[in-house]
Amino acid sequence: NYDREQCLNLTKEQVIETFKRILEDLEYEYIYINWNVLDDIKCWSVRRIMQAIGTDIGCNQVDKNIWMHKMIWQYNRLLYENKGMIISDCRQDHEMEIMRNLNALVIHIINPTIDYNDDHSTEQGLPILDSDPVILNPFDESQKDNKEYCDFMHKNLCDDIDEILKNHKVV
Question: Which of 8, 123, 170, 171 is at a distance of 20 to 30 A from 159, taking alpha carbons?
Fold first, then answer.
């Protein structure tokens, strides 16, 4: 378990070099990237790295679907093997659209008590269609260190998801 908000001991240059290696592995060019969008970042937390590198540079400068190509490849492989996949987090409208076009069952899990106080595009939530099941997650952040409470909440959440999957004939 880790805190995605905790500042990591990283410099901008280390983050850039790591992302350049990732782009090379994915066979993307990075010579035209405007790295200056990273200048104002003082704290390199896991969340901030995902926002800045994953979205602000990855999706907005390299390829809108940079992270979706691998997912689609994996989806097709699993489809061929007559298996399914679960994607536990989606934060971009265009990614959600791709998944909907693949006939994904989209389940929204919402906790109205959490205010992330973050105006990044990936923290704004995604549209909920009338056909999308919604689960209300009343998790209380003040209880995050209470193992019994967390286990109870996790079990209830899993039960809700199982019920939705059964009703949609996915299981």
Answer: 123
